[in-house]
Amino acid sequence: MAKNALQAQLLKAGLVDSKKAKKISKQSAHAKRTGNSEDAEVKKALAEAQAQKVAKDQKLNQQKQQILEEKTLKANVIQMIKQHQITDTQGEITYQFVDEAKVKKINVTQKLYDQIVAGHVVIARLEDGYALLPRPLADRINAKLEGFIVVSNDKAEDEPAEDDPYAAYVIPDDLMW
Predict the structure, then answer these.
(1) What are phi and psi of 105, to 5 degrees?
(2) How far is 115 from 109, CA to CA, in rounded Å?
(3) Which domain holds residue 146?
């Protein structure tokens, strides 16, 4: 006897004999018990796709987290600069420096000018302008995130190279034009 309506119809039409119908039904029952190999392949492909999606999502989350940490760090540095900048800087002496291949000028007092030249005070980029910071704070900021310090007169940078032919000619930093 046929187990389903389709087998019964095929037997009545004479397209399939009873032996073949039994064989097909046994094969389908065996496939159900042992697990169809096509189903296993589909499940395996689905698991691989799921694993790839999870890996991709984790990578995107890491990138978003990194961007968020960078923004937070940048905001913290800006806040540090705003809180600790030297406020009364307006003076009659112009200090010129290079920022992004452009010569910039700020007016400072003689005392601040001397401190900038000596390296005790540093010029840092702050939003659209510049701020003057004490050297220890500038070193901490530069350790956290580079790119904010514009002028830092370190004595280590001023040491001449061994094969410099102009090493004997010292150019003063506080040369006024």
Answers:
(1) -130, 140
(2) 10
(3) 39-159+168-177
Asked whether the beta carbons of 151 and 122 are under 8 A apart, the reply is: yes
Cα 155 to chain centroid, rounded: 33
| 7 assigned to some structural domain | no
Domains in the chain: how many in total?
A: 1
pTM for this structure? Answer: 0.55
Whether residue 95 is contained in a domain is answered as: yes
Each residue's pLDDT expressed in tens, for the chain with a length of 177 residues: 446 777 778 778 877 788 887 887 788 777 777 765 566 777 888 888 899 999 999 999 999 999 999 999 999 988 888 888 888 778 888 888 888 888 888 889 898 888 888 888 999 988 888 889 999 888 888 888 887 888 877 755 545 567 778 877 877 766 666
Query: Is 43 part of any domain?
Result: yes
d(Cα 38, Cα 46) in Å, to the nearest integer? Answer: 12
Q: Across the chain, where does the E strand assignment appear?
A: 93-99, 102-108, 121-126, 129-134, 149-151
Q: CA 75, CA 8: separation in Å to the nearest integer?
A: 77
